[in-house]
Design a protein that fits this description.
The chain is mostly beta strands and 205 residues long. The chain folds into two domains: 102 residues, Ribosomal Protein L25, Chain P (Beta Barrel); 79 residues, RNA Polymerase Alpha Subunit, Chain A, domain 2. The chain is 14% helix and 43% strand. The chain has three helices and 13 strands, in the order βαββαββββββββββα. The strands form three sheets. A six-stranded mixed beta barrel has the order 1-3-2-6-5-4. The radius of gyration is 24 Å and the shape is elongated.
Amino acid sequence: MEQIELNAFVRDVKGKKVKRLRAEGFIPSILYGKHLEEPVCLMVPEKDLLKILASTEGGRGVLFTLNIQNGETKKEYAILQDIQFHPTKLNVIHVDWHGISLEEEIEATIPVVLKGEAVGTKVGGILEVVLEEVDIRCLPMNLPQHIEVDISNLNIGDSIHVRDLVVPEGVTIVTSAEEVIVTVVAPETEEAPAESAQVQEETQE
């Protein structure tokens, strides 16, 4: 599991006033955790956060060490719980952190990465991706960034289910084992011209 440090600052600015923080280059955020007496309102440098998101599949599968500064520096381990984007500009406007203990298992959602080219698509089959992410449970240090699945041997009519995924030791998949990850379906056949003409004649009659 990749570990990244990120500076964070306790903030007093809340509500609509956080627009000023964004203008100053900070992203408002909040840290939750059952070990905390109450959620902690934070702000993180936008430039640093965007750089991390761009290089780590959106921050998934990453253990963050938040260096929280409030007169003195306090370290908190956390994972990204939620990222809010502006509806039109699509820039990050808020981040939720889930504070964790390294000694307790956590649940997280990670992407499934497809590898290879399905043999069925080479003979006209259509690859359909049904599930792009799965939920897992593990200790923070065992959290993978993603799970890879080889689709090379998929022929028309074949599917890969959650039960077929291979995960690292210490990782448990929470998503139902019967869920389909990806499948190859037969192409839709066009109606023969003669049959189409017959249907039109019957309709006219």
